[in-house]
């Protein structure tokens, strides 16, 4: 059994438990798939975000919406940073309110993301998705209790070494918006941890049970 905790392809695939991410078109939610919902920092607009966030507020109550996000901070996008911070804080509060894990998008803004997670503070599991940075940063985030999700970046030996040194209980895998398959990413991850895919699969099922509870099995 494969678990893909973050993909932008929201159609269900046989044999894979996927969490499809929606940052718009929230009415496309179907009952036979799992989702995360949230406003992506790339697409925030001053005049409209509050209205969209109302929809997120409503949709996140659905049983098959198992996480809030992706939401976060990005220093390489046009969106104003202050607006990003305001909206990210709202997502932290919402995740706390509905007690669902938070999937974080973070680009060159780790200190600010950590700052807001502490300031609000967050009371649900936090997953930094698409992690592809240094061993030091990975260890810092894990020491703070957060989870890291790895994707296509694992094709690179360097990132495999970063992941291989981390506690397996804090890891997730994802395809995000890439065309890579989750099977390929599992293969890279098994190589990184120097374990067989069966053990990896069991470990990731355990991690998902810890973070998402029974929500990921209820369809
Ligand atoms: Zn994404």
From TrEMBL:
Coiled coil: none annotated. GO terms for molecular function: hydrolase activity, acting on ester bonds; metal ion binding. Signal peptide: none annotated. A divalent metal cation 1 binds at residues 70, 176. SUPFAM superfamilies: Metallo-dependent hydrolases. This is TatD family hydrolase. Keywords: Hydrolase, Metal-binding. A divalent metal cation 2 binds at residues 105, 129. Pfam families: TatD_DNase. InterPro entries: Metal_Hydrolase, TatD-like. It comes from Lacibacter sediminis.
